[in-house]
Model the fold of this input.
Amino acid sequence: MTQAFRHVALFGKPRAEGIREPLLAIARIIESTGARVLFDLATAESVGLDDVERHTVHAIGKHADVAIVLGGDGTMLGIARELAPFRVPLIGINHGRLGFMTDLALDQMAETLPAMLGGRYETDHRFVLDAEVRRGGNVVHHAVALNDVVVSRGVAGGMVEYTARVDGVNMYNQRADGVIIATPTGSTAYALSADGPILYPSLGGLLLVPVAPQTLSNRPIVLPDGVVVEIEITDVRDASAHFDMQSYAHLVPGDIVRARRGVDIVTLLHPVGYNFFATLRQKLHWSIMPSEPHSRA
Done:
């Protein structure tokens, strides 16, 4: 058991319907443990909490011992990237859809949160991708991604033609709807829907997953996490690069999207007894067997 948290930041999904009351309930749980609540400024403004103490993300990063995020995985991705340089651990409470990262259910928080804030939890470390778009030798866009970096076709449609390189070595030339560079965290996101494998979160690996490739034999590959992956656009069609699907850059022929493991680590906290395989069974319904056909009379 570790020391109890004394300064607890609270974030909520912006403009989410019905989020005000759960936020206030979480705040009351935090205060019941003797900890101080640090409300995120944007969260407080979006739900009309004018009478609470509000803080910028930078101030939270400097002063918070832990951050609670109420929302879905998208909300968690955004907050995790902002707080990663400050090494503030995160607790996710699901107020979205799937909730791989926000794995604590609303109806569990009254029972589970006090114990976690008191120092009883499981720790889960995730690395991020440091990515950039280079044009003519200059960096024109830089971003950090916890899930993935995706190169996809632009608004004109048609396939993207690109060259994939690993540590400067040509891997292949390809035409496809796109290509995904994913972390183990992102292996259960877009990469999974493109037939990529699931990587255990603590593995040190990167996924390179083509999306609907023209060469049908081109398959996903798992790479060491110490490599530099480059995707160079080689066709005249427009394309775009997306970072966790929350920021993007327009790409032109000759642009290179470069991604490598970043220096920051995101720490997720889970209730005692948390198990990744249980999460997969719950979220992906692995334990649900096909029903047997009804017998005929």
Observations:
- The domain at 127-263 is CATH 2.60.200.30 (Tumour Suppressor Smad4).
